[in-house]
Amino acid sequence: MYSNRTVAVVGVSMTCETNPLTWPESGRVVMSHMRGIGLRTCSLARLMALTVVPAAVLAIGAAPANAAPSPLNLCQASNGRVLIHRGSATCSAVGAGSVAIATGADSSATATGANNHAYATGSGSLATAEDGTGNTATASGQFSGATVHGGSGNTATASGDLSAATLSLDPGDTGNIAVSSGELSSASAAHGNHNVVTARGKQSLAGATGGDNNTVTASGFESGAGVFNGNGNTVLATGDLSAADAGGGNNNQATAGGELSQAQAGQGNHNTATAIARLSVAFAGQGDNNASIASTEGCQAAATGSGVISTC
Q1: From the centroid of its chain, how far is CA 265?
Q2: Are 211 and 192 in contact (CB under 8 A)?
Q3: What is the rounded distance in angstroms from the CA atom of residue 179 to the CA atom of residue 56?
Q4: Terminus of the chain with fewer CB atoms < 10 Å: N or C?
Q5: Which DSSP string corresponds to 221-256?
């Protein structure tokens, strides 16, 4: 009845199980957290095999005469040359306009490609901007990782401790932003344009793949939010242990606001699924212009077809 998968996010291992009873379509994934808190949607497991590295902007310039002493760990590289290297920080920059700066103890910054920038300021942090042009990766959290691979004009920022922000992009992909600000959080985007993915909650997961102009936010504790193969979708997981996703269509909206709630909108266009109450489930899809609202604890609302409204 269940098929297991494992998702590893910066040292945290979580097992995901397919539960055909939870959602109308097969392939629905539910996360069983190792703390035994129960099941929650984990559609992100289908898309995250990504690494992480973020983006922040540091200015390189002459320090004023009364400036504070330089950090013990400092590595600065630009245009194929290491300009400063002291302490345990390491850096490398290859390509015209490339900049890599590492200031955290045992941190590492790597920029490869024209006008790519990488900044690693947290202790044990890792920032990588490789291939593509004009990308920025910033890792400021302790043991955080930010990575931008490919594309142009993209930004990954990992500010939470042990967090990861990753962009894995195709040539020409542009305008993507991944931010992981929660402790042990992970934000990622792949194969698309102008997607904004944010993981704010502690141990939260947020991801987007295969689409454009999507907004994905996981702000609840151990929440999960994802978009798959669609454009202009909005997904919000604000409740603790909540899960929300949209996919297989355009301009869908899924919101999981209740504790342990689940919301899914997709397999069509202009669908809206909202799960407000604790342990509530909302599904809208398999057609267009459907809406479901689950506002009673433990209830399930499903709207499928065309223009169907379901509430509970």
Answers
A1: 19
A2: yes
A3: 11
A4: N
A5: TT-EEEEES-SS-EEEE-STT-EEEEESSSS-EEEE
Q: Is the pLDDT of residue 48 over 90?
A: no
The dihedral of CA 183, 224, 165, 234: what is its sign?
Answer: negative
- Distance, CA of 249 to CA of 265 (rounded, Å): 9
What's the token pair of residue 193? 């344009």
At 131, is the pLDDT very low, low, confident or very high (cuts 50, 70, 90)?
very high
Separation of alpha carbons 223 and 203, rounded Å: 7
User: In sequence order, what are the beta bridge partners of 45?
Assistant: none
At 45, give phi and psi (nearest 5°): -60, -25
Q: Give the residue among 49, 264, 44 at the shortest CA–CA distance from 273.
A: 264
Q: In terms of Cα–Cα distance, which of 242, 280, 248, 241 is closest to 265?
A: 248
Give the DSSP H/E element, type plus range, for residue 189: strand 186-190
pLDDT reported for residue 68: 41
Strands in 300-306's sheet, in edge-to-edge order, are 90-94, 108-112, 126-130, 145-149, 164-168, 186-190, 205-209, 224-228, 243-247, 262-266, 281-288, 300-306
User: What's the CA gap between 18 and 4, in Å, rounded?
Assistant: 7
pTM above 0.85, yes or no: no
**Cβ atoms within 10 Å, residue 108:** 23
